[in-house]
Design goal:
Length: about 425
């Protein structure tokens, strides 16, 4: 009997004495080709996702133990356009799920993986529901175009040495944006020839995501920037970046120059354990109207190429990347798992001694916001928004003008894209 449960109309139940599903129902199931174990080399291409050498090595060891006939070959130093044009399309792709619609439209290398998932009896219930829901939104049809293998989280990293030096209390879990800005005011200063910015918010994009501000409405295929929603992140970012003593571009200074008090960022624990100053982390700033939520994130996902000749083997590799074994290993390294297992969550950072006395649990109190369906030009549109935010920040234009002009330019991007069809 098939492992999936049988759904039988009530009037038919009396006609079935034993044997589970009827033969007729079984015959309706599509015939599955057996999975071959011939030696095969799979080509893997990373389209901007998080894929570090230790993870590759871990997966290769597990694959060799479980599927000795499969060899993994990572394509490096090549552009996606050139790789696809060569006719040698890789079997597996790593990417942010927000990039999947563009890959589907521009390169036609994406398809619904549901048949493969069913054939290999991949248990989707082991994934965190919010990540699976985000992934399903990429197709607009509820299809599963990829599976999530890595998840980021956002936190506030702070330099305890600086707080001690200036006799200011450390940040705490549960701080709102207002309280974070008040703390940044107390820390921001210039002493001698050295500036000590109090807060580096890192990115307009990340801040805007927490407010649910997206550049394009997929339902209307129109820009959605000249709206009340976008005013909040624009104003918040300007408030932070114009604090006295905090005006300086702080990129990389938190780690490199160690003169920034606080940094808002996704997971950088692998960098932080290597620094030579006293630091810690706390929960990302919360919104009063939506507490304990950090910006929606692009889930790092993996999918089988539509043109692959080795889809079964590629699916087996994806199952390794998302397996309990590999995901537990990721968590113990201080990396975000996409599985809902409480044991995996509890093991976060267990193999990183320098995280033992850090407030990792506090930083993980929040959960990512659910992502809506995202337009394929969303990433391109963010470049436009950044440009007009720069004009607003410098005082070259007012807020409404910046949002209106950004909206108009993104609509031109959309129109140009439509003309390519």
């Amino acid at each position: 009997m098939n492992k999936r449960s049988c759904i039988i109309p009530a009037l038919t139940v009396l006609a079935i004495v034993s044997g589970g599903c009827s033969q007729a129902a079984t015959n309706d199931m599509p015939k599955q080709e057996p999975v071959r174990n011939d030696p095969v080399t799979l080509k893997l291409f990373n389209q901007g996702a998080y894929l570090f050498p230790e993870l590759q090595q871990k997966v290769e060891r597990v694959v060799k133990a479980k599927y000795p006939h499969i060899t993994l070959q990572y394509i490096t130093g090549a552009k996606l356009e050139e790789t696809v044009a060569s006719g040698e399309v890789p079997d597996l792709f790593f990417t942010f799920w927000t990039q999947i619609p563009r890959l589907a439209k521009d390169f036609d290398i994406v398809e619904d993986m549901t048949p493969l998932i069913q054939k290999h009896q991949v248990d989707l219930n082991r994934f965190s529901p919010n990540f699976m829901e985000d992934v399903k939104k990429t197709s607009g049809k509820g299809e599963i175009l990829a599976l999530p293998y890595y998840a980021n989280f956002f936190a506030i990293y702070y330099n305890k040495d600086l707080f001690d030096r200036f006799a200011v209390p450390y940040p705490t879990d549960g701080m709102t944006w207002d309280s974070m800005i008040d703390l940044a005011k107390r820390m921001s200063r210039i002493e001698g020839n050295t500036a000590y910015p109090g807060l580096d918010p890192s990115s307009l994009l990340w801040v805007s995501l927490q407010f649910g501000a997206f550049h394009i409405d997929p339902a209307t295929n129109k820009a959605s920037i000249h709206t009340e929603v976008w005013k909040k992140p624009f104003e918040l970012m300007k408030t932070i970046l114009t604090l006295p003593g905090n005006e300086i571009n702080t990129a990389s200074h938190f780690i490199k120059n160690q003169n920034v008090a606080m940094l808002l960022n996704p997971n950088i624990l692998d960098q932080m354990v290597k620094v030579n100053f006293n630091w810690d982390l706390v929960q990302y700033p919360i919104l009063k109207e939506n507490p304990n939520k950090y910006p929606a994130i692009s889930v790092h996902s993996l999918f089988v190429s539509k043109t692959s000749k080795h889809k079964d083997q590629a699916m087996q590799v994806i199952d390794v990347f998302t397996s309990e074994e590999v995901q537990m290993w990721l968590s113990r390294q201080g990396k975000g798992s996409t599985l809902k297992s409480e044991a995996i969550k509890a093991a976060f950072g267990a193999d990183v001694p320098l995280l033992k006395n850090k407030n990792v649990a506090g930083a993980l109190k929040s959960q990512p916001l659910a992502m809506p369906a995202v337009h394929q030009l969303e990433t391109s549109a963010s470049t436009v928004t950044n440009k007009y935010f720069g004009s607003y920040l410098s005082g070259e234009m007012d807020l409404n003008s910046a949002l209106r002009l950004a909206d108009e330019e993104v609509n031109k991007l959309i129109e140009a894209e439509m003309q390519k069809k």
